[in-house]
Amino acid sequence: MADIVHSVPRSDAGDVVKPNPLVVALKIAGRTLLPVFVTLFGLAALTFFIGRMLPIDPVASILGDNATQEAYEKMSRALGMDKPLWYQFGVYVKGILSLDFGQALTTGKPVVEDIARVFPATIELATLAIIIGTGLGIPAGVVAAMYRGSWIDQAIRFTGLIGYSAPNFWLGLMGLVLFYATFGWIGGPGRIDFIYEFDIEPITGFYLIDTVVQGKWEVFRNVFGHIILPASILGFGALAYISRMTRSFMIEQLGQEYIVTARVKGLSWGRTVWVHAFRNVAVQVVTVVALSYAFLLEGAVLTETVFAWPGFGRYLTNALLVGDMNAVVGCSLLVGIIFVSLNLFCDLLYRVFDPRTR
């Protein structure tokens, strides 16, 4: 106890010195933001230099194989490709600091505009998918832990195994054949039927929200018919991961002494599990959900390709295929920002709800 007392900062008069709140806030901000900037800078550098070493010539991708040498050299100078790599990277970093990611070689438009155009489609798809995955995955994981070893547990684990093992592109193709081509219950590939495409006035970029705001319910049903199958397939994969992790967290909690104490006091099994045990794993479950959402935002490439979904993953894939490094680096930085932001959010939750981590 004496060591603890003497370790507290004191003034010459013996009074306890209270730390300056501004200094404390700056230290916390520095410890938090510095790793973020280092991570994003390293991600930009790694992606940029790897892209320059790929056997893909962006100039040839723009002009084609039949371009003359004069046209090739002129385009190369216009893109700055004749400069050293370190100079090209310096120019690119300077542009990034002013939120200028350059022109996309595939579209001829600023990368920022392209991302702003395609990202809402992916956000809408991933959000509906995570709602499905979370709404079914958390209860499934809790129930599996409650009845560990029973046929219910085995059925939930088997379903999760299918969600892990079955490729999304195969599930997408089979779903289109069954629900679209055979029964006609859903819309086909794409985000909306062509006949309704010009009936939506873009407000937020999210078709489901825009159609509701404008009261166009027939268009809303068409949009929902297109999104429900790819969202369900992505949500099925998220469900598998969320249910498995929730089950693992709950099994650990259900083996604690306070659970036995609660049961001895007469609490029902359901109340003990949902009120006491689940409350202690809620932050961990939120972390799993947040990371699953991040993976959905950047990892829905195959699903977007199968369903011709005009989203972020498809845009990034097309940019990679033609060596459009401005678009690739811009997309990579966005993915990095998403993961870093969600990790910071999860760390904040831990600090708020678990005093041991403060």
UniProtKB/TrEMBL annotation:
Coiled-coil region: none
Keyword set, alphabetical order: Cell membrane, Membrane, Transmembrane, Transmembrane helix, Transport
Gene3D superfamilies on file: MetI-like
Subcellular location: Cell membrane
Keyword Membrane: yes
Membrane topology: Multi-pass membrane protein
Annotated ranges, domain ABC transmembrane type-1: 119-350
Major localization listed first in the record, in broad terms: membrane
UniProt-listed SUPFAM superfamilies: MetI-like
Membrane-traversing stretches: 28-50, 125-147, 168-186, 223-242, 281-307, 327-350
Pfam family, one: BPD_transp_1_N
InterPro entries (alphabetical): BPD_transp_1_N (IPR045621), MetI-like (IPR000515), MetI-like_sf (IPR035906)
Protein family: Belongs to the binding-protein-dependent transport system permease family.
Family annotation (PANTHER family): D,D-DIPEPTIDE TRANSPORT SYSTEM PERMEASE PROTEIN DDPB-RELATED (PTHR43163:SF8), DIPEPTIDE TRANSPORT SYSTEM PERMEASE PROTEIN DPPB-RELATED (PTHR43163)
Name the record gives this protein: ABC transporter permease
